[in-house]
Amino acid sequence: MNKKISLGLALSLIAVSMAVTFILTSFFSLQSFNRKVVDVNEKSKKYTSLQVLDSYVRENYFGDIDESALSDGIMKGYVSGVGDKYSRYLTAAEYLTEKNENSGELVGLGLTLAEDASGYMRISEILEDSPAFDSGLLTGDIITAIDGLDVKEAGFSEGMDAMRGTEGSPITLTVRRDGKSDDYTFIRRSIEVKTVKAEMLGSQIGYIKITGFKQNTPDQFISALERLTANGATSLIFDLRDNSGGLVTALQECIDPLLPEGIIATAEYKDGHTETIVYSDDSELDLPMVTIVNENTASAAELFAAALRDFGKAPIVGSQTYGKGVLQETNEMDNGGAVILTVAEYKTANSDCYDGIGLTPDYQVENEDENVDAQYNKAVEILLTSE
Known about the structure:
Oligomer: single chain
Largest sheet: 6 strands, antiparallel
Shape: flat
Number of domains: 2
Strand content: 25-35%
């Protein structure tokens, strides 16, 4: 039997429903408002404290204040205060250097420098095809002066600033070796950083060492891959030891030809949404592969090794990796500087995020004898026995 309700009762029910909806909406809106008020009050306290500090310093500091340096210092302090070791603020000059390094093109002499115990600079590496390569400089040489600037008196940071310059500009280094000092004059120029090294091991195994993932790494990697396979490589070793990572976009271009079609890696952001960060097309190289890692293998390099293993392409040889599975985003500021901020964590499509944990190799091997590369030897052994 059909039941009917009166028009009056229907209107009453509608009125009650609207009232309940209004009450619930008002309740949650009030909660949201209260949270925002607390947040605003907390922010106000922080900025008031900063204003008080600024007034005190300006009234009492015995010296001149560089307003640009002060602004950069405040920005650096703010990002540092977040407490994330991967997030940082870059000044305009630092951001320019960062962009140049990511591009894989550097302007300079081709020297990697370290702070020596003496207070001067020590040459730790000399890049091939660079102004310094054929100059007679050697790793271990000590740079005591740059264009007359005493490195020990100026400090390592100021010394590094003095090393920088535009393409085509001259620079004179005073270099000490075995107690004797000599001057070397160079012209700075653009240098392509080689992040990929490749060679044949015998007649069948192709070996590729990747030291970082920069904008020019994919071209170097694809060229090396094609050269090795054309020379008869029937298996491949990817050496990612001491590779601290780099650009995810460069990683994707390198790993794409090695994996089957589909989503390779995803990132999860603060609001819970997920994005694909590495995708592979339908071309796939079907050869036996092995990756070598160590405790300094991190970030994009870990993702490279994890993806190859998770998709059944290559076991991992070596020691536990660093464990960086979070993604940074670079946001350029109006003053020419930039904020590099951790915005998401990522993982391969087939496994969990390894941030703070690292990758555990399938074959855990430590290089205990400095004269024997046991990790490299194990990788070769795996490929030879798989044939």
